[in-house]
């Protein structure tokens, strides 16, 4: 699966990623952001700080211009990406079932935010490199969530990162499309500027 190169190189995306990574690195809590498409335009939400093991993308925390907020509530805006960082350096990046469920439209009464085109689970390594595991729905369905849950139940909390291929294989077998992206540690040190 090839990510749209342009999208992840968009300075607005990189800036959102930098802020979320920094927030998690400093606070030890999950942090993330959403990207929406509305009337053929992309909107990059502000980074939101969550709890230690949970982040909610409720309407009150998604921080978009009000017309986009309303469009999202009426499902006129499309969720393109939901990105959040898991605290704790190193180890396998494994989306939780709740994370993966974000790829499926929520049953009514829906909380806006379901049915994302892609989710990104971030992690910051000890050396400060930023990793993002991008997961798309592929051919997976809701049953695939249980499948992943069953297969990863035995995983200890911090499985060394050399097991990432194994984790990715479990996700792929369940039908998801997976890609691991990375940025060097300097991402968190400087403000991204145009064209960098
Ligand atoms: Zn998560």
Bound molecules: zinc ion
Total DSSP E strands:
7
Structural class: alpha+beta
Query: What Rg do the Cα atoms give?
Result: 16 Å
Number of domains: 1
Q: How many helices in DSSP terms?
A: 7
Topology (elements, then pairings):
Layout (H helix, E strand, L loop, with lengths): L4 H5 L1 H17 L3 E8 L2 E4 L3 E2 L9 H4 L3 H8 L4 E8 L11 H5 L16 E7 L5 E7 L5 H11 L11 H10 L3 E7 L13
Parallel strand pairs: 4-5
Antiparallel strand pairs: 1-2, 1-3, 1-4, 5-6, 6-7
Bound molecules: zinc ion.
Short account of what is shown:
The protein is of the alpha+beta class and 196 residues long. The chain is built from 7 helices and 7 strands.
Question: Can you walk me through this structure?
Answer:
- The chain has 196 residues and is an alpha+beta fold.
- The protein has one domain (5-183).
- The protein is 31% helix and 22% strand.
- The protein is built from 7 helices and 7 strands.
- Strands 1, 2, 3, 4, 5, 6 and 7 form a 7-stranded mixed beta sheet that branches.
- The longest helix is centred in the first third of the chain and has 17 residues, at 11-27.
- It is globular.
- Zinc ion binds at residues 84, 86, 95-96, 99, 121.
- Zinc ion is lined by residues 84, 86, 95-96, 99, 121.
